[in-house]
């Protein structure tokens, strides 16, 4: 346990045990909130972006808003339909990465992986930034400090995930269902009032929007098309997170794929309903919404607005008006929206380690990430994710509108490759499938995926054209960097694999073992090391002592003789108090004298339980081990001696081992006892 | 090589080799500059402090200045004479710590050690702050930024010492001799002009000093005594660093003690001459010098000075006047003074690791500090020293006058305990000595040390009375903290020692060895581990594989059979991709089945050369080793397989090993080849 751990412990208290995880896989009613928060939370910012884009051409362009909403809804329907095919075909939770790798090859797979890595960072940055804006719309004092508040939120999320949090059950269900209820309820109430003709206006309805420079006068058809394309591509931010379920199939109750597909359908239906309702309501309630950088384009009776004017997010404005300034209603809607945005960010903290683990298994990430329980690698991933998100938040001042420009390109890159992969998948399956019913289903699936690809390809092209200079280039650059790193890691593993490929001569056994036991004092650890070394019956066994001063050397030699150990003691002189080098030199010398033998170095080690004790012991042993490993023909044996305090560490390790890890739930990892790795011959 | 090392390498370039150290012990003419810079540099600030203190009672109190100078000189003479006894009696370089420990016991020894630790920090802070003031007196733009400049200087010194610097020869000799020549030359020239009646006035001579609040009117005898006591105790800052030679005796040429004593005498003579000359000149040249916080007490013709007035250090003022504003002369004096102050700070960087090493040998500091070559422990010490000094510099805004209040108490605590120890030493020696001539010499030595103790005890009392509230309490608090830490470390080592004391049953040999070789793949490292394990002829030998997915398990089992290894393979299932726990459980199980046997776990390890390769390999092995050590009855053997890139690391390690360390020179460590640790039976 390092100093950092102590700090973490003090900061975060005791850790959750995985036995608290709950014992079952997720039923649909729980899986929906667990996996839906990312996708559903998009309605908190996607409609806003549509209105911002259209506002460039003045409020009159808002007539296009619901048409754009329908276009986005169509794309979402196509994507949801496509992913329903994926969860059936690839129920292992590998998601887009697996689909692309299996069907299109490693390059496509790593491209998807880079896109996903970037997206996780952006999910955190965008969701938290949007959440900070909602918070600021309800809490006056936060206004102007959104970036700071967002950064604090990310740090808190990081801390919670470092500690280990149970991502399941009520923790997700209550706020997610509350959000659905609040938003759908608000929309229903609003639409009822619309039908009854009593729909009020939002606070910004009395404002006018001046057209942005370049949009004065009537637009050319091309300019209009381009504007609508931009609005549409911004609106497609609503699709982010739809793919989450395809990565979480193992967490579902059986029949997993079917339940996942049903949940996906529910998610799509709810998301589309919410988004369209909000856009229609906002339009009908006279919303005026511009880029927060262009607030001076908002005017009231031809006069510019006062300096302190604050533009609240669309849902906040609708909530305030629909509930006729009934503050509890407004506060409830805004609060649950803020919470679901934080939950959406949290899904990234859960998805990131899962992706890291899958990449590690394929050799694209450090192998240690691949096995559960490498706390360090795992923590590093979470810290890295938080850090990148904080940088983005700070650089873009927590402005969702700016961050959105970076967001969508990654999502659609993986959508596209995944759809293309699915088409290949069906084509391949069709080659071997004979059953007519199966074939019909496959044809149908292929058509769905083809439609999906067509839609997402169009969106990707539009996104690239409209957003490249606005920020998508940053995402693409980051993807290239991730891609290059993953390929380099894989290349390194491949090279090592080649270098290490076994041949026949590797079986040759050393002809003799020359064992040396390092002696610093004649105490229990040394005696144990001597006994263990003796038990291995080496050809030669001797103690080795590095003499740094005459007094202790004499005492040791005397004691050695008195104890009658039956093992000779070799004394290496080291006038300058160096300990490591004489031993290395001696080992090298033995090996030179007998190149076909092996030198076994036994190091007695103290096992202690407290981090500061670690600083006081074993430092020389550690250094020596590190150096000896570079000496060919040497093997290094640590003979541990457990001091009483080591029990502290063992207990801690066991607690640590049983700790919940982010991503556990979505991998379908449930409670287990230590007896579940059966030993088999 | 960690990331930090890479940064260091980029920052600092290649490291010095110890073969560049020079091959000989130090002759007196080189030893003097190496050890004198700390003591001699004190004249750059000690006289200033005397004048500042006296100025409280107005310029008229300056009549006392040279009398105080003589009092300080007397104390210095007594201290030098005392330390000449020490270098003869304790030539091993243990200095005050050794004297106090041997003669007064461990408590006195650790008290001295705490005092020395605090003093090293203060030496850096005071010398560098004073150096920054000299730099500011010559370089206009630095004025007002002394603390920043001083911090930068400390960081540069830290970097140089982390890299390893040769502390010998011309590096020290040229600037130190230049400083002596410049200062003594300036003083001689000034005194000549004084004799000839042509001594000019310093720039501040035309100013008046208003008495400080509380000192108006004529002083009571008590108030005057107290003022003189304060001035005297500040002047005693001139004594700091005198003890350095007693820690460096091993570095001298033979006869070491005699040469060290002679050098000490020369040092004392030069330091006294310089200090007295400077005080006399300053007084005669009409210096007006006040606390830099009280510049408003300086007036000109009754008017306060303009805001921008800058008070230059005493030596700078004298130099400017003596050389009649001949700028090169002034610049030379100020430059060499600045340089020697930096060298003085550097001696602390050299002394700190030496003290740490001695404390480690006695169990008061982490044992790793005791052997040369623990780069990490050693670097941590240097960074710690620099950090503490920077904190002091920042807190006290690099004001020498403030820092001096903290400085002297530590020095005089160790002076006192050391003198007391020497008196005990002679008394003890006299009990057994028969030879009349020897006895006479011992009596004489004891008288000298008694005089030394009397003087230093008086100074310590005066310092405590006059400076406790002004800052000495900080030093005392820090000493208490260091003291407590050292005792706690020692107590821990003692407890462990007790827990580990050997008894007869420890010799009992395990009855059987059950060896398991961890298998992840069937490649060269695994085959080598199997061969090595086989060579130790255990009672049972088996490969152990943790199966995380069926595909790779089948492939491995197939290959295992094909290769006909003659060793069974045990497969442990781990559905949740955990690797460590199944192995721990299995080892525990074997041990339980045979409590008198030992489980030998062989781990094939990749040895790589680049830090990032380290991240990609062995992480699981590392974690596993850490956990296995907590399992009783298990020994863990690393069987290294050196990848080609490991040669890079081996080369680097060898360069590292040959690197110069701060403190090498003063421990008398000279060039050596790898053949100098003879192997003896």
From TrEMBL, chains A, B:
Keyword line: Membrane, Transmembrane, Transmembrane helix
One Pfam match: AA_permease_2
InterPro entries: AA/rel_permease1, APC_K+_Transporter
Cell location: Membrane
Main localization of the protein described in the UniProt heading: membrane
Molecular-function GO term, any one: transmembrane transporter activity
Membrane-protein topology: Multi-pass membrane protein
Transmembrane regions: 63-83, 104-128, 148-165, 177-199, 219-242, 263-282, 330-355, 376-398, 404-426, 447-465, 471-489
GO CC list: membrane
Region ranges (Disordered): 650-681
The protein's name in its UniProt record: APC family permease
Taxonomic lineage: Bacteria, Bacillati, Actinomycetota, Actinomycetes, Propionibacteriales
């Amino acid at each position: 346990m390092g100093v950092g751990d102590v700090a973490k412990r003090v900061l975060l208290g005791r850790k959750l045990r995985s036995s608290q995880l709950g014992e079952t896989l997720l039923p649909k009613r729980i899986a929906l909130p667990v996996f839906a928060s990312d996708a559903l939370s998009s309605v908190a910012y996607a409609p806003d972006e549509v209105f911002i884009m259209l506002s460039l051409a003045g409020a009159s362009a808002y007539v296009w808003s619901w048409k754009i909403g329908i276009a986005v809804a169509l794309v979402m329907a196509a994507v949801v339909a496509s992913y329903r095919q994926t969860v059936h075909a690839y129920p292992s939770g590998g998601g887009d990465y697996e689909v692309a790798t299996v069907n299109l090859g490693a390059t496509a797979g790593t491209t998807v992986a880079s896109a996903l890595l970037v997206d996780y960072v952006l999910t955190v940055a965008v969701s938290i930034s949007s959440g900070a804006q909602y918070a600021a719309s309800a809490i006056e004092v936060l206004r102007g400090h959104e970036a700071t508040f967002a950064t604090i939120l990310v740090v808190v999320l990081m801390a919670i995930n470092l500690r280990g949090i149970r991502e399941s059950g009520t923790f997700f269900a209550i706020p997610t269902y509350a959000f659905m209820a609040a938003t759908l309820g608000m929309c229903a109430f609003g639409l009822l009032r619309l039908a009854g003709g009593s729909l009020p206006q939002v606070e910004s309805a009395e404002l006018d929007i001046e057209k942005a420079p370049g949009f004065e006068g009537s637009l050319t058809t091309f300019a209009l098309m381009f504007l609508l394309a931009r609005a549409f591509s911004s609106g497609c931010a609503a699709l982010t997170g739809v793919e989450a379920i395809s990565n979480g199939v193992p967490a579902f109750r059986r029949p997993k794929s079917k339940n996942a597909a049903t949940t996906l359908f529910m998610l799509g239906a709810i998301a589309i309903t919410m988004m369209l309702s909000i856009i229609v309501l906002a339009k009908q309630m006279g919303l005026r919404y511009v880029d927060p950088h262009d607030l001076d384009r908002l005017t009231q009776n031809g006069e510019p607005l006062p300096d302190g004017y604050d533009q609240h997010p669309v849902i906040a404005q609708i909530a305030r008006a629909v509930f006729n300034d009934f503050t509890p209603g407004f506060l409830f809607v805004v609060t649950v929206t803020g919470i679901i945005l934080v939950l959406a960010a949290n899904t990234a903290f859960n998805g990131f380690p899962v992706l890291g683990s899958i990449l590690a298994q394929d050799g694209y990430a450090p192998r240690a990430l691949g096995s559960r329980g490498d706390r360090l690698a795992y923590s590093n991933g979470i810290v890295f994710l938080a850090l990148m998100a904080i940088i983005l938040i700070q650089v873009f001042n927590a402005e969702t509108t700016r961050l959105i420009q970076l967001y969508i390109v990654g999502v659609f890159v993986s959508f596209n490759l995944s759809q293309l992969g699915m088409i290949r998948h069906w084509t391949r399956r069709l080659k071997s499938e004979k059953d007519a019913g199966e074939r019909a289903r496959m044809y149908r699936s292929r058509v769905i995926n083809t439609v999906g690809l067509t839609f997402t390809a169009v969106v990707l092209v539009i996104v690239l054209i409209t957003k490249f200079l606005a920020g998508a280039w940053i995402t693409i650059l980051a993807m290239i960097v991730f891609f290059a790193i993953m390929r380099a890691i894989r290349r390194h593993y491949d090279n090592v694999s080649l270098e290490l490929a076994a041949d026949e001569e590797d079986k040759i056994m050393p002809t003799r073992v020359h064992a040396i036991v390092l002696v610093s004092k004649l105490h229990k650890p040394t005696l144990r090391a001597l006994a263990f070394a003796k038990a291995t019956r080496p050809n030669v066994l001797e103690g080795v002592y590095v003499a740094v001063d005459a007094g202790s050397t004499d005492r040791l030699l005397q004691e050695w003789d008195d104890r009658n150990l039956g093992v000779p003691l070799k004394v290496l002189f080291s006038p300058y108090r160096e300990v490591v080098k004489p031993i290395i030199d001696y080992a090298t010398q033995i090996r030179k004298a007998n190149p076909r033998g092996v030198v076994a170095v036994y190091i007695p080690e103290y096992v202690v339980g407290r981090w500061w004790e670690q600083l006081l012991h074993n430092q020389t042993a550690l250094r020596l081990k590190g150096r000896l490993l570079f000496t060919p023909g040497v093997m290094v044996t640590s003979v541990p001696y457990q001091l009483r305090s080591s029990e502290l560490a063992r207990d801690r390790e066991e607690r640590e081992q049983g700790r919940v890890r982010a991503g556990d739930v979505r991998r379908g990892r449930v409670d287990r006892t230590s007896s579940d790795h059966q030993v088999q011959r």
